[in-house]
Amino acid sequence: MLSKIKVKNLKCFDESTIELRNFNLLAGMNSAGKSTFIQSILLSIQNISSEGKNPLNGNLISLGEFSEVRNFVKNAKNFSITLYSELNNSLELYFEEENDQLSLTIDNRSEELVEFFHQKNKRIRYLSSKRIGSQDLYSNNYDNFNEIGIFGEYAIDYYESNKTSPIEILLIKDKNIGSTLEHQLNYWLKYIMNSELSTEDIHGTDLVRAQFSYVNNRFVRPKNIGSGLSYIISILISGLASKVGDLNIIENPEIHLHPRAQSKLTEFLTFIADKGVKFIIETHSDHIFNGMRKAINKKVISTESLNTYFFAIDDKTLCSNPKLIKFDNNGNVENHEAGLFDQFDDDLDELLGL
User: Fold this and answer.
1) Cα–Cα dist 310/322, whole Å
2) Per residue in 19-44, pLDDT tens?
3) At CA 148, angle to CA 145 and CA 153, rounded to 5?
4) 3-class secondary structure, 327
5) What contacts 24+ positions apart, CB below 8 Å, involve 52-55?
6) Domain count of the chain?
7) Which helix (H) or strand (E) holds 310?
8) In this structure, is the dihedral angle defined by the CA atoms of residues 283, 285, 291 and 296, taken in order, positive or negative?
9) What is the dihedral of CA 28, 31, 35, 39, to 10 degrees?
């Protein structure tokens, strides 16, 4: 479906094209373009769904005014986002301001991309880094477009409504334990966090109650258990709710997770990605990065099914310069970039006086 995205003159970008595979990891320095790249996708979803009625501000993302999002280093008078399908058809969103009036032109050459990006079709899910934490009660979802919520606020309601439904057959890790969302969710939750989830709709209200337990122990309220459970649950539900070809965008999946849980979560993400669900993941975690490398080594996912980009600001152009990182079939990095999850080694060398 979606094969690449070209971003031109948006914030720190001059002109960059990011090739997309099933598992896409965005790494790199702060303020180097990772979030801006994700914003380009959200801006596309928003404008395709609303037919450009509010070019820069809406329910998914609000960027303010044109002067705030153009590339000021280049004194850009416009910016554009071009989406490409696997058949190389394209859809361009062109933003320009003249006489303090912002205009948006959508040059559509692919109905397939319009269908994919329109929120009504629920093919793309986005989980912000500002995901909600521990709550005892979660609201029912009356949003026609967003199943999980950008903060994961509707994940528990989605789970309660769909827990007895079978998930996509390719996404089932262990068929012996059952094919429903409940069976597979708790399989992964036990594996990653040694825990289980129980939910119930509270009759006569617009609320759902959630409880967690560590295996072989009693269920307790989310506020009385580690906060990492609340942050991981929306990621697991979003992945298991996907169909082949869907896209999940996740910011900082490592929030509040122990390094071992981060590594095991990456096993989940790469397993789902290898079955045909796309992920775009922004991370600052070397455990997520190394978990991906381990998945390559263990043949959970092939190098042909993933891309990793390292984002940094070019000293000469002062613009973002994303570089594709390559791996061999054992998960070894073939073209290391300074700053690519090497701080542990740098600190150790300093401690040892090397």
Assistant:
1) 5
2) 999 999 999 999 999 999 999 999 99
3) 115
4) strand
5) 52/93, 52/104, 52/106, 55/95, 55/102, 55/103, 55/104
6) 2
7) strand 306-311
8) positive
9) -140
Residues 101-116: tens digit of each pLDDT: 899 999 877 889 999 9
Instruction: Say whether both 66 and 6 belong to one domain.
Output: yes
E strand or H helix at 287, and its extent? helix 286-297
Q: Which of 244, 279, 311 is the last residue of a domain?
A: 244
The reported pLDDT for the residue numbered 48 is 94
Residues 6+ apart with CB under 8 A from 120: 49, 144, 145
% of the chain exceeding 70 in pLDDT: 99
Reading the block at residue 112, the tokens are 């397939």
Find out whether 3 and 84 touch, Cβ atoms under 8 Å. Answer: yes
Note whether 274 and 348 are same-domain residues.
yes
Cα dist from 228 to 192, 279, 285, whole Å: 11, 21, 15
289 CB burial (10 A radius; 0-12, 13-18, 19+): buried
By the 8 A CB rule, do 256 and 285 touch?
no
User: Of the residues 215, 244, 273, which one is the last residue of a structural domain?
Assistant: 244
Contact 281, 250 (CB under 8 A): yes
Report strand pairing: 247-251 vs 278-282.
Answer: parallel
pLDDT tens for 39-92 read 999 999 999 998 888 899 998 999 999 999 999 999 999 999 999 998 889 999
**Residue 257: half-sphere exposure toward Cβ, Cα within 13 Å:** 28
Q: pTM for the whole thing?
A: 0.94
Question: What range defines the domain where residue 185 resides?
Answer: 127-244
pLDDT in tens, 211-243: 988 877 778 877 777 778 889 999 999 999 999
What is the enclosing helix (H) or strand (E) of 83? strand 78-85
**Both 156 and 229 in a single domain?**
yes
Q: What is the pLDDT of residue 223?
A: 73
